[in-house]
Specification:
Layout: H1 2-27, E1 30-34, H2 38-49, H3 51-58, E2 69-71, H4 87-90, E3 110-113, E4 115-123, E5 129-137, E6 152-159, E7 170-175, E8 181-191, E9 196-207, H5 218-232
Parallel strand pairs: 3-9
Antiparallel strand pairs: 1-4, 2-9, 4-7, 5-6, 5-8, 8-9
Helix pairs in contact: 2-3
């Protein structure tokens, strides 16, 4: 009986240590809150759709959007091609690759414009930080295949001083003028005192502020002129009125 009681106490002690380590690990994470990263959007949809419907779309991330963690060093290292959106399963903290499913219509998109945009992080408890770096899909990227690093280009870097990230929540990032329509922004948060980083993909619909206004071709002008001549010609009292 004494041995059994001792064994139970040891097991309980180990379990409490394990829970403490797990809780501390999860709390010291974060995600892009605005515009909402794909994983965080899953949590928002979970609140609106319920567990089953949201889980069928997003997978396990709906309860843990802050844990999309993988080795740092992107793009030279980090998550493998085709596993970037899920951060390769988040070091087991997510445990699936549902976020890597990719079609032009699968994910909710946030409308943004070319030029300066603000990206805001939510830290459940901030790590010491080296930098944040932001990437965006190139023009002509394949919207219907899992994301690859060759389809991304660097669009901004925010360096930090190695201290916790509490004073660096929002970053102003420039969206290139040649982007329009559906694109993905990849936000990477490099931790200073571990070998890991956090990877958040953000689905956006880009409104290109520099798009040219619609220009009517000669055929359109010709049709309009013919219509005006026909409508305003009076055969009894010959008179031509051209409306421009």
């Amino acid at each position: 009986m004494k041995k059994l009681l001792t064994g139970l106490l040891v097991t309980a002690g180990l379990l409490s240590v394990s829970l403490f380590i797990k809780t501390d690990s999860v709390s010291a994470h974060g995600y892009v809150q605005s515009p909402p990263a794909r994983g965080y959007q899953g949590q928002l949809d979970y609140q609106n759709l319920g567990w089953t419907d949201a889980f069928n779309i997003y997978g396990n991330v709906i309860s843990n959007p802050q844990s999309l963690e993988a080795p740092k060093g992107f793009p030279e290292s980090g998550p493998a091609d085709g596993r970037i959106a899920s951060a390769n399963g988040g070091l087991g903290q997510i445990g699936d690759f549902v976020l890597d499913n990719q079609t032009s219509s699968r994910w909710k998109k946030t409308s943004i414009s070319t030029g300066s945009n603000i990206f805001t992080w939510k830290y459940t408890a901030p790590h010491k930080t080296t930098k944040w770096h932001y990437y965006m899909t190139k023009t002509g990227w394949d919207q219907n295949a899992p994301l690859k690093r060759s389809e991304l280009e660097l669009i901004g870097t925010i360096n930090h001083d190695g201290f916790p990230a509490t004073n660096n929540l929002s970053h102003t990032i420039n969206i290139p003028n040649d982007r329009s329509g559906y694109h993905i922004v990849l936000a990477v948060w490099d931790v200073a005192d571990t070998s890991n980083a956090f990877y958040n993909v953000i689905d956006v619909n880009v409104n290109n502020k520099n798009s040219s206004p619609q220009v009517f071709g000669p055929s359109c002008k010709q049709k309009k002129s013919e219509h005006a001549l026909t409508f305003y010609f009076d055969f009894i009292r010959p008179k031509l009125i051209l409306k421009r």
